[in-house]
Design goal:
The protein is of the alpha/beta class and 286 residues long. The protein is 32% helix and 14% strand. Helix 2 packs parallel to helix 7 and helix 4 packs parallel to helix 5.
Length: 286
């Protein structure tokens, strides 16, 4: 099989220039990756003890090795979850691999939606008939509503990745709830239903966040293949990581937002058809 790694995209120079300028503007606003905090003290920005969330920057480095919809009403233009309709068990830990059997693998993308990088990932997935899961940052949604709707319209799963990307085990329990709940509300407003899966920023789940996740009717997920695209912005490195570590039941962590992810985009175009040729079925964790 001949692989066309960089097919023509079919857009005009003017359109490409506009998208490039918009993407550059967003990347300029996004901080680079950094390690999750440790210890008991943390800078607490955003929603805490009933105070409204304010826009905050966030770091992107995951923690290596950590492992029916609800009825809604509208209040102030925001869809709100008013009560559970299906119980979700409180997990002792998040899922790191798929619960399905067989030669299946899940591709997941964190920290979007992004105005230009996410659509390119969607284009590649659509070209190969593949489905993925996008764990979105709530504060990115108002700027990328059309991209969020496109993710869902093309058959991908939208998951909750908090509102401002704080480390959940270092903030107050009320703020943990607010971070997850506000993103649920934004997704529900745009897509008609809240997300049913969640991933903690940096993968740092702890007891209170797992309990709140269940109360919001979401299953918590981690990963077991980290592409390290938050650290190694090298296409070949990402390709090798995925293809060498791929195995039945794997959940792959990559990023479509939060920084320059074009190496991730190009790597996906290379390794995705090869995964399919090796007999993997692309599925979504649920």
């Amino acid at each position: 099989m001949k692989y066309d790694k960089y097919p023509k995209r079919g857009v005009s120079r003017r359109t490409a220039l506009c998208l490039g300028l918009l993407g550059a503007y967003q990347l300029a606003l996004a901080p680079d990756a950094h390690a999750p905090r440790s210890g008991t003290a943390a800078v607490r920005t955003g929603l805490a003890d009933g105070k409204p969330l304010r826009r905050a920057s966030y770091g992107l480095r995951p923690a290596a090795g950590r492992t029916g919809t609800a009825p809604m009403t509208t209040s102030g233009g925001m869809a709100r979850i008013v009560g559970p309709t299906r119980p979700v068990a409180v997990r002792a830990a998040a899922h790191t691999t798929l619960r399905e059997t067989g030669k299946k693998i899940a591709l997941t993308f964190d920290d979007g939606p992004h105005a230009t990088q996410t659509p390119e990932i969607l284009r590649i997935l659509r070209r190969h008939g593949a489905r993925a899961t996008f764990f979105v940052i709530g504060e990115n949604i108002p700027w990328n509503r059309d991209v969020l709707r496109r993710i869902a319209a093309e058959g991908h799963v939208v998951g909750n990745h908090s509102y401002t990307h704080p480390q959940l085990d270092l903030i107050s329990t009320p703020r943990v709830r607010a971070e997850l709940e506000q993103t649920c509300e934004l997704v529900a407003k745009e897509l008609g239903a809240p997300p049913r899966v969640a991933r903690a920023p940096y993968g740092m789940w702890h007891g209170p966040s797992l309990e709140i996740c269940a109360q919001l009717q979401m299953e918590p997920f981690q990963w077991d293949i980290d592409t390290l695209d938050w650290d190694h912005r090298d296409q070949a490195f990402i390709e090798r990581t995925v293809l060498r570590k791929a195995h039945a039941g794997a959940i792959v962590l990559a990023h479509d937002g939060g920084g320059n992810r074009w190496a991730t985009v190009r790597a996906l175009e290379y390794y995705l058809p090869r995964l399919l040729d090796e007999g993997y079925t692309l599925v979504q964790p649920a």
